[in-house]
Amino acid sequence: MRVLKIFLLTLLLSGCGYNTFQATDEQIKASWAEVLNQYQRRADLIPNLVNTVKGYAAQEQAVLLGVTEARARVGSIQATPELINDAQAFAKFQAAQSQLTSALSRLLVVAENYPQLKSDANFRDLQAQLEGTENRITVARNRYIKAVQEYNITVRSFPSNLTAMLFGYSVKPSFTVENEKEISRPPTVDFAVPKAVAPAK
Q1: Domain-located, residue 81
Q2: pTM as predicted
Q3: Pick from 3, 17, 150, 156: most CB atoms within 10 A?
Q4: What does the pLDDT look like over 77-94, one tens digit per residue?
Q5: Could you count the other beta carbons within 10 Å of the beta carbon of residue 165?
Q6: Domain count, the chain
Q7: What is the rounded CA–CA span in Å between residue 135 and residue 132?
Q8: CATH number of the domain encompassing residue 31
């Protein structure tokens, strides 16, 4: 009788999503670790990038300081595994990373005004590494989003939602579109024909 109860319990758990929760939760942890790894890679590039720009554009103090402060804000957030279970902490982490992305964009725009800086081999190498890292961040975030989506569907679906309630599994936060307002704004289309330039006399 005891063996039969254990067998029925095992059958019940396997049929109501328990094993799926284990698998998807592990996938989320692995995907999150990769996201953090790529963000850390970016953070490690920043001091060298700032110093290189400073060598050619020391007068751009506001931009240089903005990048340094954004990196410090990112570093002040403890990106523990528990962070992916706390929607508020996750949003704070995402906001800090978004601010750092914006600060880096401003820094690269400033670099466009300094031809000598743009031709510096060290700067070009750092810029290429940064671009590669941004691509890796995008891939890692997409994997994380997909893993969370799969997990959250299991949490909300019947009968696995009963297992979720029983074992305390809840919906996990995911990355959102950072520039949602910009994306939702319709593009401005101007079909005006440019005026003809009068020929030089």
Answers
A1: yes
A2: 0.77
A3: 17
A4: 888 878 899 999 999 999
A5: 11
A6: 1
A7: 5
A8: 1.20.1440.20
